[in-house]
Amino acid sequence: MIKKGLSFLTATGEETGTELFESKNPSNLKDIVGVFASATPKQVETACKKAKETFKSWKKVPAPVRAGIIQNFGRLLESNKEALSRTVTREMGKPIREARGDVQEAIDTCNFFVSEGRRLYGMTIPSEMPNKELYTYRRPIGVFACITAGNFPVAVPSWYFIPALIAGNTCVWKPSGDTPLTSYYFTQLLYKAGLPDGVFNVVFGHGSKSTGEWLVNAVDKGLVDKFGFTGSTEVGRAIGEVCGRNLQNPCLELGGKNPMVVMEDADLELAATGALWSGFGTAGQRCTSLGNLILHQSIREKFLKILMEKVSKIKIGDPTSEDVTYGPMISEKFLSDHLKNLKTLIEPHQRILTEPNGQITGKNKWKNFVGDPDAGVFAFPTIIDNVKPGDKIYTTETFGPLFNIMVCKNLEEAIELANGTGYGLSSAIYTETPQYIYQWKEDIFAGMTSINNSTTGAEAHLPFGGNGKSGNGSRQSGVWVIDQFTKWQAVNWDLSGKLQLAQMETAYVEPDLKYTI
Ligand code: UN1
User: Are 92 and 153 in contact, with CB atoms under 8 Å apart?
Assistant: First the structure.
């Protein structure tokens, strides 16, 4: 276990704070993973100022050398993959197989972006004047402040910081209060990779009216040049407002109510396996988890039979076990939010297909439970039938092992239901008909869609992000993300030795317009 009360971390120093919070193992609440402290407003300011100061030298380090440090980071992630994955599982409860995937996604991101350090291409552009050169450079933006969530504590931070650092920005990170130890190790590996002091600064914290808020306040103080946030739509909107009045364009990755459609010609076995994973993988705590399962009315009954059969067989419990479908909720708060949703969102005309619901306990146990349910915070899988477009649960992100069943008469209606929640993150359709697939791809509002695959499953080099309430159109991953972390500089270099006026003095040639055929 690490030093008690760590609140501010740099490459060369650690500071403590007084407002302590515990990181507990959600599958065994007695196991205290670490005791950290919320950084004070002063520490947050110091972190931003440090990043601002270091920016001057970091942006001058040649990009291939910066990327070399990221290559080192990738190697360190690889050599520490198992230990880091185990920390993820212990701290936020995703099954070990998924935790390894979380770390692997960060390794893939390093591998993908390392050669970007040798590109960061600009352009040479012909000028309309003689003896004049035009060209463009990508320049780093400055101090990148970022708040991330606990559900992907390694992959998602890497999506932000790897391209940001290669592009020459310096960073201040407020990691999730649910995964401080994972974040501590993530940061140590970055430092061991060779990042100079002040380039990457971490301020720990937990809950609202705390460190995250101080970091957002730093935007108004002119201490931050770019903001990144993964979390709720409500908080994202507030951050967007602060950034907007400072004429900044943040990267916002927010909630989802992701639809999956199963058409009448679908491979039902495959679709049921996909729905199960989309809905219950990571206990439904992915931004890309399934929200509304929209079934063609003609296969509804047959499909639900296959699905319920599969649900009854899943293993839930100890996330260190290699074959549980899902482990605990991320923390006690995630469980209590889930229980509250069950109380407040379900309406009389709906029917819960799964029994029992709520918290899994020793007395009220899932039959294929692995381990001791009373030691942690576990929830039953919940499927709600007969959900209608006007229902609260149709448009509310629930972030737990819960999804809705809806029916459609045809593809048009399916698309209308899929697009009607206001969110637009991920989506999926199961069908064998090319015409359906074509129409779906054309009309689905979500930023990401799968064909005959689950709503999850982003890869490190495909743009990740959403529309509507799911974000502001920014994307992570892939080559396009470099646009988030650089700004274009246009250079116009006149070697003629005189003032040449473009447009006014350009030697355009006049045509002979009197000529007709
Ligand atoms: C998230 O839930 O914030 O596609 C990220 C997926 C993962 C990433 C999810 N590769 O579900």
Answer: yes
Instruction: Enter the CATH code of domain 41-254+471-490.
Output: 3.40.605.10
* Ligand 1 atom nearest residue 426's Cα: 4
Choose the CATH number for 258-459 among 1.10.760.10, 3.40.309.10, 3.20.20.100, 3.40.50.40: 3.40.309.10
Burial class of residue 507 (count of CB atoms within 10 Å of its CB; 0-12, 13-18, 19+): exposed
Q: Would you name the residues annotated as active-site residues?
A: 253, 287
What are the boundaries of each domain within the chain?
41-254+471-490, 258-459
Atom of ligand 1 nearest to the CA of 253: 3
Record the pTM.
0.97
Choice from 105, 286, 427 to test ligand 1 binding pocket (greatest atom count within 8 A of CB): 286
Q: Which residue, judged by its Cα, is nearest atom 8 of ligand 1?
A: 458
368-389 confidence digits (pLDDT tens): 999 999 999 999 999 999 999 9
Q: What is the dihedral of CA 70, 73, 79, 85, to 10 degrees?
A: -110
What are the pLDDT digits (tens) for 411-434? 999 999 999 999 999 999 999 999
Q: How far is ligand 1, taken at its centre, from the CA of residue 94, in Å? A: 13
